[in-house]
Prior knowledge:
The protein is mainly alpha-helical and 446 residues long. Helix content is 52%, strand content 7%. A hairpin with a 2-residue loop joins strand 6 and strand 7 (292-295).
Amino acid sequence: xxxxxxxxxxxxxxxxxxxxxxxxxxxxxxxxxxxxxxxxxxxxxxxxxxxxxxxxxxxxxxxxxxxxxxxxxxxxxxxxxxxxxxxxxxxxxxxxxxxxxxxxxxxxxxxxxxxxxxxxxxxxxxxxxxxxxxxxxxxxxxxxxxxxxxxxxxxxxxxxxxxxxxxxxxxxxxxxxxxxxxxxxxxxxxxxxxxxxxxxxxxxxxxxxxxxxxxxxxxxxxxxxxxxxxxxxxxxxxxxxxxxxxxxxxxxxxxxxxxxxxxxxxxxxxxxxxxxxxxxxxxxxxxxxxxxxxxxxxxxxxxxxxxxxxxxxxxxxxxxxxxxxxxxxxxxxxxxxxxxxxxxxxxxxxxxxxxxxxxxxxxxxxxxxxxxxxxxxxxxxxxxxxxxxxxxxxxxxxxxxxxxxxxxxxxxxxxxxxxxxxxxxxxxxxxxxxxxxxxxxxxxxx
Length: 446
């Protein structure tokens, strides 16, 4: 009972009674509490302990309990972790006899081995629990660094195992791929650790919601300068150096240009060449400050506003992308158990591409196993469907799969895996649970 074939159906023996007092009536409880060997020659002739349970068992089964030897199991810290109880010492003749001192000595040695085995089992279980709890805590801490990516790791750690489970259950394309419980756990652990390098990333980069954001959004400073320009226009009007029509035209054009800067400051998927040219033109606007002409935009502001995709400059992207290398350095320093030896590679390869143009190691198609590709897809899909990014709206599935199909054509992600995911129940399950209703629309199958 309680081995590999059946559950334990007997109730546990309490060490303490309901009133908090020690349980001194049950022989196993006393052995554990007092750390002593108890040897009973005949339970039916003993009044020191409560053997009613034993006697009921005998009555219901026809068994006849007589001699009992109870030995506490103590671990390396001298804590009692269990009790070894032997019943009915039997001679070759079949006759039940009492346990003697020699039996006690022999069984003390056996109890020590049993305690060691139990300790090892408990240690493995506790280390496993500690590892899972530690990884989950680190993942939550990384997610908490940015209010804009608050649930990214959590969602990836749900999606990656879902895809792996769908592959395990598949009887078509992936009919020969089967994952053990440990391998599924390995994928989940890798998902929770895939962005561990971001723990050292500065919040100014992780949380950069707009192109001009530093301690505050720089667009507000530019708008204040625009107000100074409007003041200068009004002064020119009052001095009769410009007409009323020109004054109104200048104000109107300036207002439109500021609205344009506010828009491009948010960032997006792509910025046109004509928009870059317009930023250059606006940067040449001047206003008077301390009697000197000063340009509306500084070189740094112009550089940031000209970011073509997202909100990070090339230098900031290098810092952000370095999290993958840092993740590799951190994870390779951890002594993962043998069964989780692939966590490192699955985790750090989520920015690699099949065409060899990814990072941090520039791996190619031949280097990336299926589990790596699952993580790559899960990470990108979550990022594209995220609804909490300040620089983009929540994309619909049709938009997401259009982008992913282009990535597959460019051999950045696994086209077969993408098609499998797109047509799987896993997508439907994840979408209903994690996406906004407005994101779930009809999309063309790849």
